[in-house]
Write a structure and sequence with these properties.
Helix content is 36%, strand content 6%. It has nine helices and six strands; from the N terminus they run E-E-H-E-E-H-H-H-H-H-H-E-E-H-H. The chain has helices at residues 10-24, 59-69, 82-91, 93-96, 126-137, 154-160, 169-179, 200-210, 221-227, and strands at residues 3-4, 6-8, 42-44, 50-51, 180-181, 186-187.
Length: 247
């Protein structure tokens, strides 16, 4: 049965924050779902948007669902709405932070669930960023969102730390070509290694060098792939010999 999306108010955000703090301090508490509908903590949206308690195998599946829910909706007013995205994170909190065998939970940083007022932390939000990537890049974003809803992964962590890269289509498409394994339906082995050449950290480091002299936002993936050093060849499919990195 579908539920109407609402938005948490300041009291709702504070109550959710307190709940997360209690969990981190070892308390075993039920998810405060009353915040979702209680008018003391949340308010209705100006338009009717429905959402379901679906179970998602991956973050990508979650993103696909959100894109379908928001199809045809002007999302501009919601992009920075803390109460809106936080309400959805609370609605799916049992998937974003499932209980352990002993009934406890181990939440990650607050801004993974409560949309931060700090712009630098916003790419860390589990729901907003998942929707943004699938909405912006579709299947190309699978390599970043192949883990369970409760897991983030090194690839998205590295890119989220340099949020301007999220808006560079060529950067994301080139990274997908390098690091996505269509057979395993996840990222390639070695792509998150801290020592193996051509890994995601080295990719971002190299892009930061390029960004000093090139406009990454306007560069297409083929151009970026062609400019990469030879060490990235190991991650390219054999059929991509025409775009193999320069030697």
């Amino acid at each position: 049965m579908a539920d109407m999306i609402r938005k948490l108010n300041e009291d709702g955000l504070e109550a959710f924050d307190t709940y997360l703090s209690d969990l981190r301090n070892g308390k075993k508490l039920n998810t405060p779902v009353h915040l979702l509908t209680d008018p003391r903590y949340s308010a209705a949206l100006e338009e009717d948007l429905e959402i379901d308690q679906k179970v998602f195998s991956t973050r990508f599946a979650m993103g696909e669902y959100l894109v379908s829910v928001f199809q045809g909706v002007n999302m501009q007013p919601f992009l920075g709405d803390r109460g809106f995205w936080t309400w959805i994170a609370l609605y799916w909190f049992d998937q974003l932070c499932p209980s352990l065998a002993d009934g406890s939970r181990k939440p990650s940083r607050v801004y993974n669930y409560i949309l931060s007022p700090n712009y630098n932390h916003r790419p860390r939000h589990a729901v907003r960023t998942t929707w943004f990537l699938v909405n912006s890049y579709g299947d190309t974003s699978r390599f970043l969102l192949s883990k369970k809803p409760s897991e983030r992964g090194e690839l998205i962590e590295q890119l989220a730390a340099r949020q301007h890269l999220f808006n560079c289509r060529g950067v994301i498409e080139a990274a997908s070509r390098l690091y996505y394994d269509p057979e395993r339906k996840t990222f390639k082995r070695g792509s998150t290694s801290t020592t193996r050449k051509g890994n995601i950290r080295r990719y971002i480091s190299y892009l930061q060098q390029l960004d000093l002299t090139y406009d990454l936002y306007s560069m297409e993936k083929e151009v970026i792939l062609d400019m990469l050093p030879k060490e990235y060849e190991r991650f390219l499919p054999e059929t991509d010999s025409d775009t193999a990195p320069a030697r």
